Amino acid sequence: MLVAIWAQDQNGLIGKKGKLPWRLPADLKFFKETTENQTIVMGRKTFVGMNSRPLPNRKTIILTRDTAYHAEGVEVMHSIEDIMTFAEAMEDDVFICGGSTIYQALLPHCQKILRTLIYENFTGDAFFPALDWDNFMLLERRVGTKDEKNPYDYQFESYLRK
């Protein structure tokens, strides 16, 4: 099953110059615990924004139209069809991790959504694409609060496609 996972501010912002515009350790911990020992899919620009280093203990797939692109320690695919064929053959979930263009292309195929909503407004240049929330039902909402490590109020949300 394809699962979209992301964090956003109140306005749908997800990035700034290829990086996260905030630091929220609780969200990073949630992402790590959710995706560890799983397969993650991201676009080339998102990967480059992570200094072109695959995250430990995950199979990383880079989706790019650039057929000459190669990076150490990752698998490269070039089409939505390649990702869909791969995901259908998997027993485990495949997590879509960004950026905006990758979410836009793969959201119609995602059966589950894991969103961290940060109750703050940031500046940046990458936004989560429009989503018809009527197609999804809320499964769980866990509220987090700011503290000495997490400077913003936030919540984790889990949705399933109807």
Automatic annotation (TrEMBL):
InterPro entries: DHFR (IPR012259), DHFR_CS (IPR017925), DHFR_dom (IPR001796)
Residues in DHFR domain copies: 1-161
EC number(s) stated in the UniProt entry for this protein: 1.5.1.3
Signal peptide segment: none
PANTHER family documented for this protein: DIHYDROFOLATE REDUCTASE
Chain's role: Key enzyme in folate metabolism. Catalyzes an essential reaction for de novo glycine and purine synthesis, and for DNA precursor synthesis.
Protein name: Dihydrofolate reductase
Source organism of the structure: Enterococcus alishanensis
